[in-house]
């Protein structure tokens, strides 16, 4: 039963399950290649490239929350902390100490894992909503602390993050524009999707799902629910930090707004709008939301209303998201044919 | 003659399993009807569905009429307001409150319900509660808690009182005491649908009895008929009925 | 200086207490974690300000107007969430209240603008002194209201039918149905009460400093600190912890940069959660 839930989404139609592995792999390769070409197919303007890079970054950011929300069934409201920690660690090390991107990424991961461990351990023995409250408090308080700490750049943040340079065959690859950043962002996104796909099939993934479906039963079956929760939470943090790392280079500065509730609402909506527990859900969600904000923005406050409104309406009208609406429609059409 | 409670063709499903499979039960005014059967026969599921209540998520079909009125679609608190009052199996009182508070928190009935019991009336029925009136229910004995549960049900002015295994877990002497209390209430005019695993005890007080097995009624009759019934005797009275 | 911090801390703590009292009841009764609580506080302040500056109402009339507006809003929000509350879908409840809060913040920014505003309360001009400590009539009002609301809540929960119904639903919502209690109505009453408390806190604490539509996030954290430290549903503990937190904030702000006071309190909370996950004052 758990396996069925976990695989739903990768395989839209039941028939897809019978497709051999090599054909599936080929399909994925074609999809990635298409994604790579997409911005140039859409005209290749700077705006398009900016949008697709942001979609990739925000999707990665959302995958961190997705792992906790969809599979563990708990609400982490502290992932903006990991997002900001990734970006700030990168920016500070790159600007002040001249670190190159890869060591900066490793440092970001270490910092976020430590943060996640701290929050996870503190909430290990508490009731479900305390976890959400503590993570939320950590993010909001993080915002005040960062704003008021000069060592972290205060309310101005840290500016002048250098270009993203990666070692490549015969020299270095320098991402000067969003168009040049796109391949890197896409590779990161693909790696994260692969990681999440792997997680869904892993012992930890199925255990988490089991713990979510029936905590008591899984405890009776010898599953350590607390340990599972801790592991999944700690796994999720560096995913979001990776997005922060990319974002620091994309924007070339970091500021306390990374900790604002806007990004928090974005992550949650990106997971919930398409429907929870879908492998490509957060990507689709990030695509929809980023497109609205980049290409059809109504201004800051109105965009807040859009974001909050979308999340509220989805939860109230169809908590299973767009997929839930789709399944409902399909059922209705089938039903009326009979 | 239309019965006070008329349950027709009730079916209750938990997911794919059918726990109650087309049961019809009637309870007339001033009558005590018992439902007996083995563990898992579907007794609780049946009476919970009659009260519109459950701790799970069952799917219910069929009709439930109280004095001719179709109550089958009403929420449990609305049915309680009309005098269809259930004392569920197991936890039937608020443990965090005192006896007095449990008796007072009951919403007073609206309209057409039966005889209203004041807190004092309840204490007259169960004198033993008088000295425990200020005690938290979590500190009461099983028998006392059952009395509080029945007492708070009386406070709701029931026309039909449904009791789900009120004697479970009680010492034999207390079983007799509780069931005698119930019979007294019936003799005073109340209608009761009683779930009781202990068939012998049920037959002592009931007017009629239905035997439930795997969600279906497999035998019914008056208490006298059922005492003579072979199936009942073999299955529940050890074949050596008194 | 100590005395000044003491008096300031008392006023702060009373404000926190007012903010938290409704939430305590709400979380205890409905297991509903309302992340929009801080935005209801913000609206309490801004509707008061709006009624004064736009319609020229006196402060004493503007506050009740704000309470009514927020109460109506509370009714709408809870009616939207009734299904979820009855199902006790805690995950979705947290998410939807978070969305509501964000929505309210965006709406308030559009409606009231992004500038800081001040609420004109005559009591704020009334300077009083107790030895070396200076405070205002507004501070006295906050303390009086906080104590009054705690007393009221205590009496209602302990002594009235409504209170017994709330406690019954809190203990076992399913069983409450069999007592003839309509859980949905109880949830509605509790939610509206909680919203009104938040709005009142905003309306009376607001005049102490400039208000912004972006405020409210710190307030949720403070509320949550109070409720979790006190132990969920513990009313008296809530009052004590709230006052304690106010004093802590005031004293911390005297010796360290005040911006870090909530952070410091949060660190205390993390330690407490590890040592006593059930809260400081909880019995279990
Ligand atoms: N909440 C529930 N969810 C799923 N199945 C249930 C639930 N409650 C009872 N059942 C099943 O329904 C059947 C009847 O149970 P019940 O009505 O409690 O029997 P009885 O009261 O006669 O002992 C049993 O097979 C039981 O396992
Ligand atoms: Mg039973």
Give the topology.
The complex is a heterotrimer of chains A (338), B (242) and C (284).
Chain A: H1 2-7, H2 21-41, H3 46-72, H4 79-97, H5 101-122, H6 128-148, E1 158-159, E2 164-168, E3 171-175, H7 178-201, H8 203-213, H9 215-220, H10 225-251, E4 253-254, H11 261-272, H12 281-295, H13 300-317, H14 321-337
Antiparallel strand pairs in A: 1-4, 2-3
Chain B: E1 5-14, E2 17-27, E3 32-37, H1 43-51, E4 59-66, E5 69-70, H2 76-81, E6 84-87, H3 99-104, H4 119-125, H5 142-155, E7 160-164, H6 172-187, E8 191-195, H7 199-205, E9 208-213, E10 216-222, H8 223-228, H9 230-236
Parallel strand pairs in B: 3-8, 3-9, 6-7, 7-8
Antiparallel strand pairs in B: 1-2, 1-4, 4-5, 9-10
Helix pairs in contact in B: 4-5
Chain C: H1 2-30, H2 37-55, H3 59-87, H4 90-112, H5 122-125, E1 127-130, E2 133-136, H6 137-159, H7 161-171, H8 173-178, H9 183-205, H10 217-230, H11 235-255, H12 261-275
Antiparallel strand pairs in C: 1-2
Helix pairs in contact in C: 1-6, 1-9, 1-10, 1-11, 2-3, 2-4, 2-9, 2-10, 3-4, 3-9, 6-7, 6-9, 7-9, 10-11, 10-12, 11-12
Describe this structure in words.
The complex is a heterotrimer of chains A (338), B (242) and C (284). Chain A has 338 residues and is mainly α. Chain A has helices spanning 2-7, 21-41, 46-72, 79-97, 101-122, 128-148, 178-201, 203-213, 215-220, 225-251, 261-272, 281-295, 300-317, 321-337, and strands at residues 158-159, 164-168, 171-175, 253-254. Chain A has a domain at 48-272. The two termini of chain A are 28 Å apart. With 242 residues, chain B is of the alpha/beta class. In chain B, the strands form two sheets. Chain B has a six-stranded mixed sheet, sandwiched between helices. Chain B has a four-stranded antiparallel sheet with strand order 2-1-4-5, covered by helices on one side. In chain B, a hairpin with a 2-residue loop joins strand 4 and strand 5 (69-70). In chain C, strands 1-2 form a two-stranded antiparallel sheet. Chain C has a domain at 21-215. Chain C has helices at residues 2-30, 37-55, 59-87, 90-112, 122-125, 137-159, 161-171, 173-178, 183-205, 217-230, 235-255, 261-275, and strands at 127-130, 133-136. The N and C termini of chain C lie far apart (39 Å). Chain C is mostly helical and 284 residues long. The radius of gyration of chain C is 18 Å and the shape is globular. Chains in contact: A-C, B-C. At the A-C interface, helix 5, helix 6, helix 11 and helix 13 of A face helix 3, helix 4, helix 10 and helix 12 of C. The complex binds adenosine-5'-diphosphate and magnesium ion. Adenosine-5'-diphosphate is lined by residues 14, 19, 37, 39-45, 55-56 of chain B. Chain A: The chain crosses the membrane at residues 25-42, 48-69, 81-99, 105-122, 129-146, 181-199, 230-248, 305-329.
